[in-house]
Amino acid sequence: MIVGGLLTQCKQKPTRSGSGLMGYAVLEGITGSVEAVLFPRTLQQAGSLFVDDAPVLARGRLNIREDRTNSLLIDELKPLGEINRSLYIRFDSLPEDVMQKACAFLKRYSGETSVVLYDAAKKLGKGVPKEFYVTITDAFLAAAEDRFGKECVKLK
Q1: Could you tell me which residues are beta bridge partners of residue 6?
Q2: Quick one: the chain helix, strand, coil %, rounded to 5?
Q3: Which CDD domains is this protein grouped with (predicted)?
Q4: Which of 89, 120, 128, 139 is the 20 to 30 A CA-CA neighbour of 107?
């Protein structure tokens, strides 16, 4: 199930085993709201998205219980504004070895945001195969800007 909306009442609590933090929030949409639960791995991946009033797209499973409120067990959280966006990385020139190194870097951040490698010398952009699409997080953007240069990495 995929749902878009605003996160509200965001809270983090330790797991019963104490091995990490769980995220709890309310995901509010146009027609209603649902309790949202993020397990430690998902909460860590969500990073700065897990804040009140964040517009998000949540992918997960509906947990229906007779004795308690239904909830959405979130597997993935994305910024709602980044749907249909692409990441552009500009290079002065883009020989095959540079493209392979760039793709190896991108593969470590596997996700669903398309990436275009732009060859400034040829004024030509080349979309990478889906296996090199990335997940846009603050950590990824910082690593990409560090590797390729802040002025060369753009999200459009």
Answers
A1: 28, 55
A2: 25, 45, 30
A3: DnaE_OBF (cd04485)
A4: 120
